[in-house]
Design a protein that fits this description.
The protein has helices at about 10-20, 30-35, 40-50, 75-80, 85-90, 100-105, 160-175, 245-270, 275-280, and strands at about 55-60, 65, 95-100, 120-125, 145-150, 185, 190, 195-205, 210-220, 285-290, 295-305, 310-315, 315-320, 325-330. By secondary structure, it is of the alpha+beta class.
């Protein structure tokens, strides 16, 4: 693993959150003394954390307390949880308190020679992105936002199906941490109980005939809390499915699973993952609606082809839909 770029000093809000996370409750005057600031500054920082989605209670008797436990991301803890061989393969590991998006952070550095297998994580994203330009937001400490950079020496067309492979890697990482019952909704969503648990954004660049590169971003809802009301679609979090895993452990398993499965994908293509994808396909056999611009078409999802494209049975016959052409909404 190469040395990561220098990281800025942790902002005061992070130091405050770390203290809150380490105590059942802690008075404001104690926080002020430990952080070397005024009690007014503590109040302002608490309000910043609340605005970022952290539920914090306050009382005259006990001081401030977190309504739910939070584990902050820690680069050393993530690295220590990786298998030894994976630590040697890993490029750079960046961890930010706040950034526009983890995908953008890696994309900006590619022209400067960003190493293969580099990873970026962030506690907060001000401009997190989903597929087709949609916003992706998670409360502070309530999710996992991770992106990785991979280099492909072959043609860009070889990367068709990569979002599904990344989804399978995310499912395996969740299962490693005791979270079961999650499936994939073509082309890039993690679904459980007919609601969105996470999303994947793959952004490609380089030469069409190679070499090229991919930045794969994955966002997973861990504990949404009151933030769930701000999401414009049915959403679910890991807390509704299982005991919450360690965020650092989950990050490490996701890095490892992505690395291993993308290696196999670059070597053997999507076809070797087709049977596994079929087992977790939440659309297969269901009535769906295809959106092509302003046109809406009704069909039945029939799985994916060997490239990872969606097969749809329409009244006039079966068609293959490539990722990027349409949005797919499963009917209830």
């Amino acid at each position: 693993m190469t040395a990561p770029p220098s990281q800025p000093t942790a902002p005061p809000a992070r130091d405050l959150l770390a203290l809150l996370a380490a105590h059942t409750a802690i008075p404001g005057k104690v926080l002020a003394a430990q952080l070397g600031v005024s009690r007014a500054a503590i109040w302002k920082q608490v309000e910043q954390l609340r605005a970022a989605g952290v539920a914090i209670s306050a009382s005259n008797a006990d001081g401030y307390r977190l309504d739910a436990p939070i584990e902050l991301l820690d680069a050393d803890a993530i690295t220590a949880a990786l298998p030894t061989a994976m630590r040697r393969r890993l490029g750079e590991l960046e961890l930010h308190w706040r950034i526009d998006s983890t995908n953008s952070a890696l994309l900006r550095r590619i022209d400067d020679g960003l190493p293969d297998r580099s990873v970026c994580l962030a506690e907060l994203q001000s401009a997190g992105r989903g597929r087709r330009g949609r916003a992706w937001q998670m409360p502070l400490g309530g999710g996992l936002a991770l992106s990785c950079h991979r280099i492909c020496e072959g043609a860009m067309v070889r990367l068709a199906g990569l979002s599904l492979v990344a989804g399978l890697a995310a499912l395996d990482a969740l299962a490693d941490c005791g979270v079961e019952g999650v499936g994939l909704k073509w082309p890039n969503d993690l679904f459980a109980r007919d609601a969105k648990l996470g999303g994947i954004l793959v952004e490609l660049g380089g030469e069409a005939l190679g070499p090229c590169h991919a930045v794969i971003g994955i966002g997973i809802n861990l504990r949404l809390g009151a933030h769930a009301a701000q999401i414009d679609q049915r959403a679910i979090d890991v807390a509704a499915l299982a005991a919450l895993p360690s965020r650092n452990q989950l990050a490490a398993r996701l890095i490892f699973r992505l690395d291993t499965m993308i290696d196999q994908f670059l070597r053997d293509g999507f076809a070797v993952f087709a049977a596994r994808q079929a087992q977790v396909d939440v659309l297969r056999g269901r009535d769906i609606e295809i959106l092509r611009g302003t046109r809406r078409e009704q069909g039945v999802a029939a799985g994916v082809d060997p490239r990872g494209a969606l097969r749809v049975r329409f009244a006039e016959g079966e068609q293959v839909i490539d990722s990027g052409e349409v949005s797919v909404r499963a009917k209830p």
